[in-house]
Write a structure and sequence with these properties.
The structure holds 2 protein chains of 2 kinds. By secondary structure, chain A is an alpha/beta fold. In chain A, 36% of the residues lie in helices and 14% in strands. Chain A has 2 domains: 119 residues, Aspartate Aminotransferase, domain 1; 265 residues, Type I PLP-dependent aspartate aminotransferase-like (Major domain) (Aspartate Aminotransferase, domain 2). Chain A contains 14 helices and 15 strands. In chain A, the strands form 4 sheets. In chain A, strands 2-8-7-6-5-3-4 form a 7-stranded mixed β-sheet, sandwiched between helices. In chain A, strands 11-12-15-14 form a 4-stranded antiparallel β-sheet. Chain A is globular and about 80 Å long. Chain B is of the alpha+beta class. Chain B has one domain: Beta Barrel (OB fold (Dihydrolipoamide Acetyltransferase, E2P)). Helices cover 21% and strands 34% of the residues of chain B. Chain B is built from 5 helices and 11 strands; from the N terminus they run βββββαβββββααβαα. In chain B, the strands form 3 sheets. A 6-stranded antiparallel β-sheet of chain B has the order 3-4-5-11-10-7. Chain B has a 3-stranded antiparallel β-sheet with strand order 6-8-9. Chain B is globular, with a radius of gyration of 14 Å. Chain B starts with a strand and ends with a helix. Classes of the chains: A alpha/beta, B alpha+beta.
């Protein structure tokens, strides 16, 4: 019998062999010396039927433990939120699902309009004037921002906080490698985590292309002196770039209102699930300044009218910046985007509205602050380790002697609780510390359960 | 002078890449020709070279160090190739806000930059006279 997926039968194979004048398939390998030929069968399992494969894979999958079935506090850059059912059902419409990046863009008016709405909402949220149609993720958006700042200022130095996400830092360094940009880290205040302003001022010279900060920071705290940072950067002719979790902007001042020139961030929490680390959505927006807009990476969608000015329509704009026209002079090699994730973000934001987003941000922050209070009250634990305001992520240090954070997490896991992301390898100076998050998915009793399990893990009295 | 609808003023030098050069003492003012701007169509952006940039005279095989920025129209981008080796002394900042001057006044208000040539005597002969440029333009038809 033939193979269910491979349509050449024994008869067809024999016909083909006859056609080319060989007796057997083995004859096709006659050029390979006898002594190096494999004489035995490969160690592969026998062929399985479709049903058997399905059962086999199901058995394997059953060994996974989806975090949706546990209580998770695993912070560090991606955040699960409730995604309203209509977001999923709308993005799964084939008109959106199969479009990818529009190549014959103007024939996909619906897709362009959805992306235009996404860009408009990102601008409103970040306080910027121009947003692109998305990048791959937060990290690549930082890399693109650094390249853009270097092109605009014709300078080569990028200043970043020492406490920025190490993964994002690593991506930024990759981007910096080709054009020879120098990425320089800025120190922080030990007690508060706040970026050291005097160091920033000292390092800001005529060679600095941009100052990048994260707010909320990777370790959860908020930078409180952002206006001074913006002023210092601008005084030296540098561009001020701010990285954000967009949910936080329901509550916090828009970066555009405190001096940001470019805003980047992770758009995943806007209506996109967390699954094996993605899919992610890079936010990239800038101020209305011709110098900046000419150099912005990625695709831009604009609104226009037909010639008789009666019908509104959408087009790709400033395409001459892009690779298919500008070739090696393109502002970025990214002509692609995360269109479907951006559409999901647009639908999600439109569903929440400004008030919904504010309530969501408040809940996330309130939950984190409640969790910090509960955990900090436990002997042998400290949360957060920085005396600063926090949004929805925070640090938790295990001060119990001989209890490593990984051991502590293992104890939580026994109770089906996923603890924070250990940051000891990334920042050993903070000792046995992990990074936790909360969102609206955590109920009060969930946080109480975490606190109880944590107290038990460190052997403290309840 | 005029070839078809293309202006080719006297007193300038030209290149086969459609740049013009006007010698002003020991400096050279550079722009793109009427033919070039018509080929490009509506210019929407001019990428100017950096002041102090050292450029090489453009040859058959092009390289980045022969470029004096680029001119961008709605659907195309073309590099501006340097007719001479030298150092960029001045750029036409007005083009930042009014790139359309390349279309409306390619030989006057739409100049791109001023270069201090480093090897003018030797390189001058590679430039085309207006007559030679006119002959060249006719071969393109």
């Amino acid at each position: 019998m033939g193979h269910p997926y491979i349509p050449n039968t024994r008869e067809i194979r024999e016909q083909m062999l006859a056609e080319i004048g060989v007796a057997s398939i083995d004859d096709l390998f006659s050029d390979i010396p006898e002594k190096i030929r494999l004489k035995k069968k490969l160690k592969l399992p026998a062929q399985m039927s479709e049903l058997e494969v399905k059962q086999d894979v199901q058995k394997m999958l059953a060994r996974n433990k989806p975090f949706t079935q546990m209580l998770s506090f695993l912070g560090g850059g991606l955040w699960p939120h409730h995604i309203p059912a209509h977001v999923r059902s709308l993005v799964q419409r084939s008109e959106f699902l199969t479009s990818y990046t529009p190549y014959q863009a103007e024939t996909s008016q619906g897709m362009l309009q959805a992306l235009f709405e996404y860009q408009s909402m990102i601008c409103e949220l970040t306080g910027m004037d121009v947003s692109n149609a998305s990048m791959y993720d937060w990290a690549t958006a930082i890399g693109e921002a650094a390249l853009m700042c270097a092109r605009v200022t014709r300078r080569k130095k990028i200043l970043v906080p020492e406490l920025m996400s190490p993964e994002r830092f690593s991506v930024l360094q990759n981007y910096a490698l080709g054009p020879n940009l120098e990425v320089v880290k800025l120190g922080y205040d030990w007690a508060s985590g706040q970026l050291d302003l005097s160091q920033l001022r000292a390092k800001l010279g005529q060679d600095v292309a941009c100052v990048y900060i994260e707010n909320p920071s990777y370790l959860g705290f908020l930078e409180t002196r952002v206006e001074e940072m913006a002023a210092a950067a601008h005084k030296a002719g540098a561009i001020f770039v701010v990285g954000v979790n967009p949910i936080s902007l329901g509550l916090l001042k828009a970066p555009g209102d405190y001096g940001a020139d470019i805003v980047v961030g992770e758009g995943q929490p806007l209506g996109n699930p967390v699954s094996f680390g993605g899919p992610t959505l890079g936010i990239f927006a800038c101020r209305d300044d011709t110098k900046l807009i000419r150099q912005i990476p990625g695709r831009l969608v604009g609104a226009t009218t037909t010639l008789d000015e009666k019908t509104r329509g959408f087009t790709m704009v400033l395409q001459t910046r892009e690779q298919h026209i500008r070739r090696e002079r393109a502002t970025s090699n990214i002509c692609s985007n995360e269109a479907l994730c951006a559409v999901a973000a647009a639908i999600y934001l439109a569903s929440l509205g400004p008030r919904g987003l504010r309530e969501l941000a408040e809940t996330c922050a309130a939950n984190a602050n409640y969790a910090m209070k509960k955990l900090d009250a436990i002997d042998g634990l400290e949360a957060p380790i920085f005396a600063s305001p926090h949004f929805n992520e925070f640090t938790l240090r295990c001060t119990q002697p001989k209890l490593a954070i990984k051991k502590f997490n293992a104890k939580l896991l026994k109770q089906d609780i996923q603890g924070g992301r250990p940051i000891k390898d990334e920042f050993p100076e903070f000792g046995e510390t992990a990074l936790l998050y909360t969102t609206e998915l955590h109920r009060r009793e969930d946080i109480d359960r975490l606190a109880d399990a944590a107290a038990e893990a460190v052997g403290a009295r309840k | 002078m005029k070839v078809g609808e293309h202006e080719v003023p006297d007193g300038l030098y030209y290149t086969k890449d459609h740049e013009w050069v006007k010698l002003e003492g020991n400096l050279a003012r550079i722009g793109v020709t009427d033919y070039a701007q018509k080929q490009l169509g509506d210019v929407v952006y001019v990428e100017l070279p950096e002041i102090g940039k050292v450029v090489k005279r453009a040859e058959e095989s092009k390289a980045k160090e022969m470029e004096l920025g680029a001119v961008e129209s709605i659907k195309a981008v073309s590099a501006i190739y340097s007719p001479l080796s030298g150092t960029v002394k001045e750029t036409n900042q007005v083009l930042q806000d009014r790139p359309e001057l390349i279309n409306t006044s390619p030989y006057e208000e739409g100049w791109v930059c001023v270069l201090e040539p480093s090897n003018l005597e030797a390189e001058r002969e590679s430039l085309l006279s207006p007559d030679a440029y006119v002959v060249f333009l006719k071969t393109l038809k």
